[in-house]
Write a structure and sequence with these properties.
Blueprint (H helix, E strand, L loop, with lengths): L2 H23 L25 H5 L5 E11 L3 E13 L12 E11 L2 E11 L4 E12 L8 E6 L6 E3 L10 E13 H4 L7 E14 L8 E3 L9 E13 L6 E13 L15 E11 L4 E15 L20 E19 L1
Antiparallel strand pairs: 1-2, 1-15, 2-3, 3-4, 4-5, 5-8, 6-7, 6-10, 8-9, 9-11, 11-12, 12-13, 13-14, 14-15
């Protein structure tokens, strides 16, 4: 069994363990975080009880949010989203009071790209949430910043460049995904202001494609590392956090672990670690300034792959050796990745 399959099996076993634990507790779980801090502000995680459970009269809810997301990489985007939450298959039991279907639409615009995202999620019981969605993205160049485009070595094989100009005509990024989350709040089992320990484990399968790339061509999107390719990917995020009962602004501190792996292997990919799991670890801090204004701060570190001819530099030129020309060696190095933040206002 290769490393990728072992890692996937370990993730599934971890998920099953969490699932068994929360079912045994027979408790009411709260919503936690999405797989990426850019996609949620953890606001649901610090609510003691959903409005429907408080009133006993579930109602359709509409929520509109505007915000910004940025990081030290650097990254920046403006986000506008609207969600419609409809009660569905709900009941009086604590496990059923929050049952719902939620439809979401999100528009993102960055200096180098814009994305349109549609999502639907379903919570059959409080402990579980399933979702599916699609993303369509367009990108362009801005100076030396890569919006979208095919990634390949130059004539000397020493630097990473784009084949095309990376504008609207070069192609479109399309992604479809489905996933499931397990979520749990200790305070639902043992009520108390000091017992809000939340846990969430989210698992996603996605198929990504850049229409301007051939099957085995790597490509950039939104100035990432340029190691993307068309095909399936598995990703997961695991959160454990503590909700602060008395502090006026800081509402939650937690630990977030994110991982992903490609599910289709490229010929020769073991040379540069194509099938290795990619891990990001970080500390999540959720702030609530008012009922409408929230923020998230997330310093992240990465378990970097090791090479005998290349060392990752957080703010340097990481294209000095084309990634498919790097020679993977055993081990990992723990190093800084980025500081990400979001600021969200709910209308």
């Amino acid at each position: 069994m290769n490393i990728r399959k072992k890692g996937l099996l370990a993730g599934v076993l971890c998920f099953m363990f969490l699932f068994a634990f929360t079912l045994h507790a027979e408790t009411y779980g709260e919503n936690g975080t999405a797989e990426d801090v850019f996609e949620a502000t953890l606001g649901d995680a610090i609510e003691e009880t959903p409005a429907a459970a408080k009133s006993g009269k579930p109602e359709t809810e509409r929520e509109t949010r505007i915000g910004i997301a940025a990081s030290s990489k650097p990254e920046f985007k403006f986000v506008f989203s609207q969600d419609f939450k409809i009660p569905f298959l709900y009941g009086n039991h604590p496990l059923l009071r929050g049952n719902h279907i939620k439809f979401g639409l999100t528009y993102e615009i960055a200096p180098i790209a814009m994305n349109f995202i549609g999502n639907v999620s379903f919570s059959p019981i409080a402990l579980l949430e399933f979702d599916a969605g699609t993303l369509i993205g367009l990108g362009w160049n801005l100076g030396g910043i890569r919006g979208i485009g095919v990634n390949e070595a130059d004539l000397t094989g020493q630097t990473s460049i784009r084949v095309d100009t990376g504008n609207f005509s070069s192609g479109t990024f399309i992604s479809g995904y489905f996933g499931g989350a397990f979520q749990f709040n200790l305070a639902a089992v043992s009520p108390g202001d000091w017992k809000h320990i939340i846990m969430r484990s989210y698992h996603r399968f996605s198929v990504d494609a850049f229409t301007g790339a051939d099957r085995n061509d790597p490509w950039f999107f939104m100035n990432d590392e340029g190691e993307n390719r068309n095909g399936w990917r598995y990703s997961a995020s695991h959160l454990i956090g503590y909700v602060m009962p008395k502090l006026p602004v800081l509402k939650m501190v937690g630990f977030l672990a994110e991982s992903d792996v490609y599910l289709n292997e490229l010929p020769g990919g073991e040379k540069w670690g194509d099938t290795d799991w990619r891990w990001n670890l970080g500390i999540v801090m959720n702030f609530r300034f008012t009922d409408s204004l929230t923020a998230v701060l997330l310093p992240q570190f990465r378990l970097h792959r090791k090479y005998d001819n290349y060392v990752y530099k957080p703010y340097g030129d990481n294209n000095e050796v084309f990634f498919q020309d790097r020679n993977r060696i055993d081990g990992r190095s723990f190093g800084f990745y980025r500081v990400a933040m979001t600021l969200t206002y709910t209308l």
